[in-house]
């Protein structure tokens, strides 16, 4: 009887040690999963977040450091899809105020695109560092109507300045400025190649505005619009320069509502 009492503290210590070992093992497993989560998990999440419109194909590496092909898709089941040439490489790093990302796109940007994601109470803010990038106009097909009908070709030069997007539920707020120069644009709906070059300027703020102008070309495009928080309202018109009416007639009939020589474009 005298020797049984000391066994209780020993048993309690052993139980506590076992619990700490299990807790340590679980913590180690969770940490390993967080650090070495496969890139395909990020690919699956991106498909879910974008309703299948943005995809990482053949993703390799981890959630934090990986490579994949980048595909823009639209239509039912992603019927209309366009792949960017080459491989896309990303590097994600946690910060005290969110996550930083470096997006390396050798096809389209001379330097990695720098992005910061700041979580909010009911959404997220995405801040894009100032930069320049060049994209094939064919990628617009993956954004759906009307681009999947136009099937554009040419070059898109994007410049961003203090640009940020904040998503709060179904509301989307825009800050800063983004300028898109579309050069030597052509379409499968016209035999005229190229049709022209254009500029699309987006100015953020309390009521973000959009301005479309023609830099040069036979197809004249002009218009303006604004972002309501959930949708874009845009009014513009298209017309053919003298001597190009026949080559652009089919296109003008499709991209808007014909009003004589003009085609009126209304979105939203």
From TrEMBL:
InterPro entries in the cross-refs: T2SS_protein-GspN
Subcellular location as annotated: Cell inner membrane
Keywords: Cell inner membrane, Cell membrane, Membrane, Protein transport, Transmembrane, Transport
A Pfam match: T2SSN
Family note: Belongs to the GSP N family.
Primary location class: membrane
Domain of life from the UniProt record: Bacteria
Protein name: Type II secretion system protein N
